[in-house]
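Throughout our pipeline, every protein is held as a single compact record rather than as scattered files. Such a record has a labelled line for the sequence and another for the backbone structure tokens. The remainder of this section carries one protein's record, kept here as part of the documentation:
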Amino acid sequence: IVVPQIESDTRSASTQNMKLQLIKTSSGEMLCGSDIHLITYQRGIGKTLSKEYPLTNEYEALLKCAILDSDTHDIERLAIGLPVELMHLSDKLKTKFTGVIEAGNYRHKVHEVLVMPQPIGSFVQFKHTNPELFHQIHETGSSILLVDVGFGTTDYITTAGQKLLPRRTGG
């Protein structure tokens, strides 16, 4: 969660000991960090729900906060997971986040942005944590249904071995 920056936030006694980062977005400054839930509770702020969420300032601030927290300044590939129904935003995100990203007091270089449907992360995790079973599934062409039940969407992909079955994938 991120919140719009208010000048008093950085000087307030209640926020001085919090772990917060000031992030500049295309239309202003926002705060993010591990203690941000305390400010959102004080202000009654919640997460934006929108089909265009990945294009919002909140999303930009969260992504920049993650980049800043990673302490990585030269990023060969930035992988972004999206709900299946938002994959049409891929090109816009690739354009927006490829190149120099300013986060905190640092300039981070992102060489390439990969945008993939969110359940793919589950597939990769499964592959790396169950190599023998994954090999067996790959060899036999068995199908796997990966389901990601999220806050506002449910995404799913179906594979035969490692091959994605687009007609049986959606969200």
User: Anything to note?
Assistant: The radius of gyration is 19 Å.
